[in-house]
Amino acid sequence: MKLLQVVTLLGAFIEAAVALPSSDPLAPRACTTPKLRKEWSKATQSERTSYINAVKCLTTKPSKLGLSHRLYDDFVWVHATLFPQIHSVPAFLPWHRYFVQLYENALHDCGYTGNAMYWDWVADSSAPSKAKVWDPVTGFGGNGNQTSTTWGTNCVLDGPFKNLQLKYWNTEVRPHCLLRVWEPGYPEYNITEMLGASYTPEVMATINAETTYEGWHNGLENGPHGAVHQGVGNFAGDMGPQLSSPNDPMFFLHHTQVDRLWWLWQQQNPQARTLAYGGVREDGTTVATLDDILPMMGFAPDAKVRAYMDVKATNLCYKY
């Protein structure tokens, strides 16, 4: 009898110990009330207005890094500086998932009470330039001035960011207005406007047929992800040179969509894909693991990849 009591008590102790929360604030733990991230056109006008006002607020706050620029520019500087470590590598997806979360947190600090939003460019791929997200009243404004071929003159002409002034171009200090140069499309060469043919539902269906993380990640990053950057920014717009692409506030709707597509792929087989990860790191030889570090250069705590694999973890806790 005593032995049975000891075993029972020991089992209860172990169960309680396992249930204790981790001391690591970024350790994955399941959330119970995930937040909903909406597609921009599905949000209410008050939600859209609040989001845009919070983005503008970021341009009024000082750098968290102590640099001679604004909080808005912190996101650009960190992304540009870390570019080789976070692109064309397995960390691309979890690093940008963390980055979008940091942006959402910053918007909250500016009074926004909603969640990150996305532009579903797959749904709009047949006519990307007609997407509601470009509306000058309810969206981010449209294309830049196309009457000049001189760099720095393709300023966005309408919408809430037409007067936005930016500091960086790639990693250089080159003050300029918000620039957009939509790919016009050349039917005679079978090139569609804003390269929409590169991110159609059919293209995504082919990518989603990939069963490995490495295959899926490479297909998305080097295909639709890059095509959207090029389609919106071309070579002279802020979304074009990907190092400083967070200059354009559309970057975050774009990358929330990238995150959503990853989540959808994970949801096809959650047990196998939630922690599916692999490939080679930026040195070209080291195998990537879930214990690799996602660097943030002091802008936020560095974190392990595993902390950003599951959107149901309490440090994320959202759904689409």
UniProtKB/TrEMBL annotation:
What keywords were assigned to this record? Copper, Metal-binding, Signal
Q: Which residues form the Tyrosinase copper-binding domain?
A: 87-104, 248-259
The record, for InterPro entries, names:
Di-copper_centre_dom_sf, Tyrosinase/Hemocyanin, Tyrosinase_Cu-bd
Alphabetical list of PROSITE patterns matching this protein = TYROSINASE_1, TYROSINASE_2
Instruction: Name the Gene Ontology molecular function terms of this record.
Output: metal ion binding; oxidoreductase activity
Q: Name one Pfam family in it.
A: Tyrosinase
Establish whether keyword NADP is in the entry: no
Q: Which residues form the signal peptide?
A: 1-19
- The source's domain of life comes to Eukaryota
Name it: Tyrosinase copper-binding domain-containing protein
Q: Name its species.
A: Echria macrotheca
